[in-house]
């Protein structure tokens, strides 16, 4: 690191005081300008006032360090010398830009002043130099607008009333001028118009702000520098820093750089480019340019930008000449710089350039943004080019990038223009378009007729599952990220938006009201489940097919080589298991058995069991379920042949199965040969005030041992049947909601006995394990005792988060938004594991568990199993595997690899 | 300890091999017989076969150690010598008893054989010695009955079908004999009858059991010894050991002792006595005796026992002569023994004696059972007599003993004979008698008319509180020990029985059905809330008034000197606070503010707040509550002047305040000027699936800061008003349900700001603290962070137990009974703190909290604050205080003292 005595770092003519690594001192922009200069790339000369000056400025009651002015003057002299111009010179005036540049990009949060140094005295000289009076007066009026706004008003702390900001007043003058001239666009004003406008501007500034617009170049320069430093503590910047967690002490640097102009004539031009295609990732120089134009013209959209090269021609710009054709020499120079920058920065760069009178200047380079598809392709190709290594390639792909490949997405260009109806929580990624239906039954009927439907409900329940399954997407008005709809949708990789509070659903009239707008059943909507957006109408979707993407396949191979965590999936049906296996799942970490109970053929048996008066009746009813469950388990184990399958015994409270209305009760009573009154009484008896903390999990198996026995029998009979067919099965029976070793022991005895019996009855032998969910705090506290009885642990971090925080995930909607807005919680703890609280219990559980049983297999099967940040934590505490919904498996594989690589990186350091 | 080689320990004639301390080896009975012998007290000689023999017997396939027979023979010879008799001798036969005696009393669980040594050959000798043929034949037939049952059937492992046990068959023979003789009672059979019966008995034994009744004395002796050892592993004994946690390895000793007879004539007698009065504790020799009788006659109730002394004469035995009058010399000897025993054992003794032909023999001494009142008086008086020290006195009183003083109780003699209707959970101690009413409103009306009522409900809610308050007692069909009814009742020291599942309440017909019996509203019942019993009719109650009991006052003074824990109370009303102060509370540890909201005048304001659309409307509604709350707090702080008062901000979910039916909604809508439909929608919106984990606690104050502000203002305005009156107040504001430091900080800022404002506005200064409940697991995990913001912690162990176990205390009724029955939980964790799980979190919370803030004040205000076992734990982890309901305060003071004394005892050891 350079001495902190120095305040100004010069760059220009192939030599810079700074380097790319010194971002903390010089800010990102300044460091990169220095780096490019040192690489011999033509950069307009300039200098960077360090971030330390900013810090000192605020510490020292907004006074600059002594010597700063002298350093700035010296640096200006060097710029003048290189450019052959002089700041404030009448004949050959130098203009400069004054820009902010913090350590971390804070786009649009701080101020910029361009064309500094343009005064009544220097205008003629610049006209002489550029032969373009219109350009010069346009630059002058821009300077006045920018300067009066940024320096004279904002930095001075003036807060004018609504609509009375100097910027608005000047814009109004300009509009008046255009009206007077009978023209529409700024560009239609000529040199004289703009000259006159400048005078009007200056008068207005004096009148409104009580001070004249400064006509001294150095006064302008220091005004600009001061305004940039001031803007570090502007309202917008402070708010942004708080959100992004950027410390106040970092401060911003100020970059003062010679202005170059792409709009001085036909030998001038300006452009932006990417060193590779940011949409596809293809290794091809890609960009746009405009002759005789300023940087902002390229993005403003008034003129159609031209393709950079022949390869870049397509559709709308096919007929326009490329830079490659127009200025072949300059293009070759630019292409050389592109290669140099990419080789140097080892990543795709987003560059800005200006050509002034046939001379190329690079104004900016930075790592370019790109789509997910492009990210993956670039990472893989760069690794193959040996630009980066495979580990770096794996680290470069963010989990969100993979999401793009795994789900259909709305065509981005169309989404921009679509009508946003409402926003909800992004519960299931990807996109879906379809016709609104309000009940699961109708969803099924409409789908049978070949219609594409979106099921819209206040909230969903297990009884809606058939409708959810056929829907393109699911939208609910209530519920959070771990509501029933969200869980089921993610499990299927289905698009889902939940908690969309703006919806009012009227099932009777089959209408939805959103923000005053009425939609009927049958109307089309489109959901973006990755962002939580609901759009009106049917938007075009781009399909997903990751397996066809060779770069994805290669990248995942590399990731698998790096990771230490195993990746399993949460799946309840053979189809889901097969899909997950396709995505790379190495087993099932959680097979919930309760979903299997809602099938109409079975639900009666379970209801019969619930209302049974005697243990004998209960047993008889339960045993009716045995063949169904056996078939379920056999299907899943077959789909996962050769891999472990963890099956959780029945978990939810029984009343979930008897959520019936009057008529249904009457029908059921008839079916069961009992009276509706008695049945109603029994159902009422099952009602719980806090079902989450009620009679569920292993508590069911303990009070109704025949239930555990039936499930164990179904599992082992399925295992025996497959074993007989020569298939390898590894069932792992998981006891839910265990809080004491005694609970586990009670259930383990039943399961182990049944395993023995079934093996004897069928004459087969197969391996199996008996373990437990760790999902309530007490289980973590006594994990050493529990591990004596458990062959594996699987953390149920959903429930563990609920009980550790005392949050019901069904009910947090009333306060969580406030908690996030007020910064009381950094994020939704059901999405990303609360490592400081819940994580402490997980770590304790692992440590205590392995103390009793050093080889204890430990996994996690909560929703956090698919969350990259949480996966990094699970890696760090030494879990054996994470289990997540099928469509999260690739993301989990990647996140696990990144956690391993990051850890090794740390160890090496 | 004696060498373990020795199998037999002799006692007799003033010298014994054993000592009272050797209970492990000799069993309680044997050790005490040895001790009495050594004290020079006349004990019939005998010997003890050690518990180690029993252990060896079972280890060695039921074979005795070699040498045992020889040792027994030698010991018998010593007994014969002392008694001047010989075992099996024709002229002067010795009879012995064979009794079990384990380390810990197992009443009735093991076997006894009396009169061993009586054979056809020794009968004439005994008749000659006693001059009483009837006595001898009666002894003989008793021996046959006992021996054939205990030795020949049970110990032999014979399990006859129902009603075919030898005992029953012999009893039937005896009945036949009585019928044939035309007599009713056993005593009406004469010597010849009994002689004949003995022969019948012997024939029956031979026929049924296939073996003759042994006529050899040593065969009888070894049969008896074997039967006692066998009975250690009898079904009853095994079951008892499992319940009491007695290890199998302990084994039982066998005591063989010369028989002495109190029924040989007029100079013989038998009796039982207590060294002090076990009912009142008075220091007076108290007992009963019968001339010419056997021990069992005293308790059998056929003859009215006579008073031991003149002082003991009362009512029914006033006319009977006392032992003091009848045998003054023997009485004086007995009184001397009584003094000796009490001085020696340093506690009240329960003794048995027999007088055979004018000679006194002591058969047993043991520490006597006594009532609570007696326990306290004895402990205090013995300490004053310097028999024990004050610490010992404090240790001797069990918390249940105090309960007797603190609540009215059913007259024990009447309770025995009362008709038990049903059993429930003992939720509020003491007793209550009254007329059944089924609604709170009628309870209030009836009470106004001067009726004594018992409110009977399925369960209670805050809306029943007025009815609960006027009721003598509360009975609910549902709910557990921490249900609403239980909590409120305990808070008031009111008798309450909950979870009485046998009740079916029909509000329409105003009837209750219990086990087929129909009770109407207005019928009388009596509850024993200490035991959970419900009796038919009105039983007489004994009133409570501890302050009038000087022994209680003295004992509590001693206890207060010993304890380190402070004792506070949970009280929401000035009357309760004053009552608690009377019981010795040193402050309020928990003042819940929500109960104050249910007052009809206030509930509308809170409902108005709940349904408010804007923050402004909400604020206005809330502020209506300010004067009410200020008054509440002022009353409580005045009642607790000079002591700290911890006030918890609003905790329960808001929907608890809008539990309304259709009509109420309509009325409220009218009152609030809104539509019933809108109101209904708003109420529905508040519904939560798991309210326990929902929008409550500090989450309310964070989303509605004006609520916390109003409450803080009410607290501090009350404090200011009292300060102005010259009163000392110490308000402590407690933020509930905190899980992150940020939550506490958010609320603390509001409270601290309001404190400042109020002090400024009123020109007063008063001390105050801001702290937090620690009641969810996460708070314990991050207690170090929370302690940075908290001036005190108060553990809410009710909620902490709920979240740590994942148990809803409202819903555990469905599985907790099973858990207790199956030994999965040792006890209800809501009654006695789960030290292995929840306790680990408490300990962690204390440790981490004090790490950040070494002087952090830490208390506990859950229901466990009144539970002695839990109090010992709280003492051990270094809490500053426990807070419990007013009527538990004396118990907490005692338990805290006992914990401190026990700890010092341990340290010294």
Write the layout of secondary structure elements.
The structure is a homodimer of 909-residue chains.
Chain A: E1 8-12, E2 15-16, H1 23-38, E3 46-49, H2 51-59, H3 68-83, E4 86-87, E5 93-94, E6 96-102, E7 112-116, H4 123-130, H5 133-154, H6 166-181, H7 191-209, H8 217-231, H9 235-244, E8 252-258, E9 269-274, E10 286-291, H10 295-300, E11 306-307, H11 323-326, H12 328-345, E12 349-356, E13 359-367, H13 372-384, H14 390-396, H15 399-406, E14 409-410, H16 412-417, E15 420-423, E16 425-428, E17 431-437, H17 440-448, E18 453-457, H18 465-470, E19 473-476, H19 484-492, E20 495-498, E21 503-506, E22 511-514, E23 517-520, E24 524-528, E25 533-536, E26 541-542, H20 550-562, E27 566-570, H21 574-582, E28 588-592, H22 600-611, H23 615-623, H24 626-639, E29 644-648, H25 662-672, H26 676-686, H27 698-703, H28 705-724, E30 730-735, H29 741-762, E31 769-774, H30 777-781, H31 783-787, E32 792-795, H32 797-805, H33 816-821, H34 838-852, E33 857-860, H35 868-876, E34 881-884, H36 889-908
Parallel strand pairs in A: 4-5, 17-18, 18-19, 19-20, 27-28, 27-34, 28-29, 29-30, 30-31, 31-32, 32-33, 33-34
Antiparallel strand pairs in A: 1-2, 1-3, 3-8, 6-7, 6-8, 9-10, 9-12, 10-11, 12-13, 14-26, 15-25, 16-20, 17-24, 21-22, 22-23, 24-25
Helix pairs in contact in A: 4-5, 5-6, 5-7, 5-8, 6-7, 13-14, 13-15, 13-20, 14-20, 15-36, 20-36, 21-24, 22-23, 24-28, 25-26, 28-29, 35-36
